[in-house]
Write a structure and sequence with these properties.
Blueprint (H helix, E strand, L loop, with lengths): L2 H4 L10 H10 L6 H12 L3 E4 L6 H12 L11 E4 L3 H14 L7 E4 L5 H10 L3 E4 L1 H10 L9 E4 L2 H6 L3 H10 L5 E6 L4 H10 L4 E4 L12 E7 L5 H12 L4 E4 L3 H13 L4 E4 L5 H12 L5 E4 L1 H4 L9 E4 L6 H8 L9 E7 L4 H11 L4 E3 L4 H21 L5 H11 L4 H15 L41 E6 L9 H12 L9 E3 L4 E6 L3 H9 L10 E3 L8
Bound molecules: adenosine monophosphate (AMP).
The site of adenosine monophosphate has 13 residues, from α4.
Pfam families: DbpA (PF03880), DEAD (PF00270), DeaD_dimer (PF25399), Helicase_C (PF00271)
InterPro entries: DbpA/CsdA_RNA-bd_dom, DEAD/DEAH_box_helicase_dom, DEAD/DEAH_RhlB, DEAD_box_RNA_helicase, DeaD_dimer, Helicase_ATP-bd, Helicase_C-like, Nucleotide-bd_a/b_plait_sf
Protein name: RNA helicase
C-alpha cells in the first residue's frame, strides 16, 4: 500500500460533516481502497462499475455518496435512491448500514424484501422514504402495484450483480432499470464480471468509472507464512479466536480489527477470558506505545490488538502470529499485515477469521497473492483438550530430560507405590500438573462449523490433514464447475456426485473437491471432462430443478 494512498482520510473525500461524525462514531479510521476510489466519482454523479466482493467496504462506497448527494426535504415521498440486492439478509444489512451512516441527516431508509408482510412496506412507502433497499422480485411487485414510484430516482445501485443474475433476476433488473429515469446515475458492484453482465452494463451504464479491487501489484513478501482461514459466524468470533489462541499458543500475536471500537471491545473480552491483551491506538503518545511494546517484549502481554492505522510502523521481532479478526478490505492490506511475521527467515502464522459471506474476498486475496489460504475447521473441544494434554506431556518430558533434581520427589513416589500401582501414581501426578498448568479456562462449547464446504475434498479439520493432500481444493488439472443451486435448495454432495456420475459417465473418484454454498455449489472435475459434464448437467435436473451450470468464472483480476 503506497503511503500517499494510506494518508487519505474520509475528510479528504469531502464528505459532509454529519457523515464524518457518523464514521468517527463507528470507529472507521480511514477509507478502504474501494471507498477511496469509488466515493469521489460517485459523489460527482458518475456511473460506476466496481469489481469488489463482500468485505471490501463496498457498502459504504456507494452508501456514503448517496447520502452525500441527498438534498431534499421530508415532505418528499418518492425515493431518490434504489439499491437492489440479491437477498433479504443483504437488504437488511445494507439498509442498517445506510441508516447508521445517515443518522445525522435523518435519512429515511426502507428495506423491502419478500417474506415480510407487504402491508408494512406499503405503509412505510406511503409515509415517504429517501432510499429503498430491495430485492428485485419484491421491488417489481411494488412497481406493478404502483406503490413504488421510480420517477424521482437519482441513483440506482446494483449490489452483487453477478449473484442477482445467477438467481434469475435478470428480467426484473431490466424492468426496474427501464422504469427509472434515464438521467439517473447507475452504480454496479459485482464480485465477478461474467460476460452476461456486459450486456446490462452496456445498456444501462454511461461511461462508467471502472474499479477493480486488488489490481495493484502485490509483491508477495510472505512466503514463509502459514496462512489459514476459518469461516465463523460473527457471534462466534470471540470464542473462535480464543480457541485458536489456545491451540496455537503464540509467543506474541498481533490481532487486526477493522475499527477502534472493535479493538476496545475485543481487548476487554479477551482479558475477561484470561488472556493478556493490550490495545494499541492511533492516538497514543510514543511513550504509551513504548509501554505497550515493552509489556509485550517482557512477556507480560502476549496479544496486541490494533487497527491498520494504529499498527503502522510497528516492527516486532517476536511476533509469531498475525490474526485478521475480519477479512482485510484489500489484498494489499492482507499482504501488508501478514508481512509482520515470517521475517528474517523465521516461520510465521497468519490466521484469518471470515464470515461465510466473505469467502469470495478470501479467494480474491489468494488469486492476487498467488498463495494458498487454507480453510480449516475451528478446533473442536476434543482437539483443544488433546492439545492441552500434549503441552503437559511435553512439559513433563522436558523436566525428565533436564538433569532435574527428582530425588526429592522419588521418595514420594516410593511411599505411594507401597499402596498404589505406580502407573496410577504417575497418572495422578500428570493430572495435577495438567490442572496446575492453568492458562485460560477452555471454552467448553463447540463452535458452529459453517464452512461453505462438503464432506469431500473440502477444507478439512486437523484430523484429516494427513489423509488428504494439501491443496486438494484446486488440484492441478482440475477445473471447477459452478452449479446455481446450493444448501438452500437442499443440495448435498451426494446429489452432485450422483448427477455427474449418472449423466456424464465419470466415476466417483474422478470428482475432486465439492463446495456447497447457500445458493450455489462448486465441483471440481478433470479439465478434459469439463465440457462433457457441463453439457450433461445442463440436460438434466438436480433435485428436480434446472440449475445454471457453467465453468466457474472467477479469474484472477487483470493487472
Ligand atoms: P462490506 O464489504 O461493505 O460488507 O463491509 C465489510 C465490513 O467492513 C462491514 O462490517 C463494515 O462496517 C466495515 N467497514 C466498511 N468500511 C470501513 C472502514 N473504512 N473502516 C473500518 N471498517 C469498515
Amino acid at each position: 500500500m503506497a503511503d500517499d494512498d494510506a494518508a487519505i482520510t474520509f475528510a479528504d473525500l469531502a464528505l459532509r460533516e454529519e457523515l464524518l461524525t457518523a464514521l468517527t462514531q463507528l470507529g472507521y479510521e480511514e477509507p478502504t481502497p474501494i471507498q477511496r476510489e469509488a466515493i469521489p466519482p460517485v459523489v460527482e454523479g458518475r456511473d460506476l462499475l466496481g469489481q469488489a466482493a463482500t468485505g471490501t467496504g463496498k457498502t459504504a462506497a456507494f452508501a456514503l455518496p448517496i447520502l452525500q448527494r441527498l438534498d431534499r426535504d421530508a415532505s418528499e415521498r418518492s425515493p431518490a435512491a434504489l439499491v437492489l440486492v440479491p437477498t433479504r439478509e443483504l437488504a437488511m444489512q445494507v439498509s442498517e448500514a445506510m441508516h447508521k451512516y445517515g443518522r445525522g441527516l435523518r435519512t429515511r431508509v426502507l428495506p423491502v424484501y419478500g417474506g415480510q408482510p407487504i402491508r408494512m412496506q406499503l405503509r412505510a412507502l406511503e409515509r415517504g422514504v429517501d432510499v429503498v433497499v430491495a430485492t428485485p422480485g419484491r421491488a417489481i411487485d411494488h412497481l406493478n402495484r404502483g406503490t413504488l414510484r421510480l420517477d424521482k430516482i437519482e441513483t440506482v445501485v446494483l449490489d452483487e450483480a453477478d449473484e442477482m443474475l445467477d438467481m434469475g433476476f435478470a428480467e426484473d433488473l431490466e424492468a426496474l432499470l427501464e422504469a427509472a429515469p434515464e438521467t439517473r446515475q447507475t452504480v454496479l458492484f459485482s464480485a465477478t464480471m461474467p460476460p452476461r453482465l456486459n450486456g446490462m452494463v452496456k445498456r444501462h451504464l454511461r461511461e462508467p468509472v471502472t474499479i477493480e479491487i486488488g489490481r495493484a501489484d502485490v509483491e508477495s513478501e510472505a512466503k514463509r507464512v502459514r496462512q489459514t482461514a476459518y469461516i465463523v459466524p460473527r457471534a462466534s468470533k470471540p470464542a473462535a479466536l480464543g480457541r485458536l489462541l489456545d491451540v496455537e499458543q503464540p509467543t506474541a500475536a498481533l490481532v487486526f480489527c477493522r475499527t477502534r471500537d472493535e479493538v476496545d471491545t475485543l481487548t476487554e473480552t479477551l482479558n475477561g477470558r484470561g488472556y493478556r491483551a493490550e490495545a494499541l491506538h492511533g492516538g497514543m503518545s510514543q511513550q504509551q506505545r513504548d509501554r505497550v511494546m515493552n509489556r509485550l517484549r517482557s512477556g507480560n502481554a502476549d496479544l496486541l490488538l490494533a487497527t491498520d492505522v494504529a499498527a503502522r510502523g510497528l516492527d516486532i521481532d517476536l511476533l509469531t502470529h498475525v490474526v485478521n479478526y475480519d477479512v482485510p478490505a484489500s489484498p494489499e492490506a492482507y499482504v501488508h499485515r501478514i508481512g509482520r511475521v515470517g521475517r528474517a527467515g523465521r516461520e510465521g502464522v497468519a490466521i484469518t477469521l471470515a464470515q461465510p459471506r466473505e469467502h469470495r474476498m478470501l479467494r480474491t486475496i489468494e488469486h492476487i497473492t498467488k498463495q494458498k489460504i487454507k480453510i480449516e475447521k475451528i478446533p473442536t473441544v476434543a482437539d483443544l483438550r488433546a492439545r492441552r494434554l500434549e503441552l503437559t506431556r511435553a512439559g513433563l518430558e522436558e523436566s525428565l530430560l533436564e538433569d532435574g533434581d527428582l530425588d526429592h520427589f522419588r521418595v514420594v513416589v516410593e511411599t505411594l507405590a507401597e499402596s498404589y500401582d505406580v502407573m496410577d501414581v504417575a497418572a495422578a501426578a500428570v493430572k495435577l500438573a495438567h490442572e496446575a498448568s492453568g492458562g485460560p479456562a477452555p471454552d467448553e462449547e463447540e463452535i458452529p462449523d459453517v464452512q461453505p464446504a462438503s464432506d469431500r475434498g473440502a477444507p478439512r479439520g486437523r484430523d484429516d490433514r494427513t489423509k488428504r493432500p494439501a491443496g486438494k481444493r484446486e488440484s492441478a488439472g482440475m477445473t471447477r464447475i459452478f452449479i446455481g443451486a446450493g444448501r438452500v435448495a437442499g443440495i448435498r454432495p451426494k446429489d452432485l456426485v450422483g448427477a455427474i456420475t449418472n449423466e456424464a459417465g465419470l466415476v466417483g473418484r474422478d470428482i475432486g473437491g465439492i463446495e456447497i454454498g447457500d445458493r450455489f455449489s462448486l465441483v471440481e472435475v478433470p479439465e478434459g471432462s469439463v465440457d462433457g459434464v457441463i453439457t450433461a448437467l445442463r440436460g438434466t435436473t438436480i433435485k428436480g430443478k434446472k440449475a445454471t451450470i457453467r465453468r466457474e468464472r472467477f479469474q484472477s483480476p487483470r493487472r
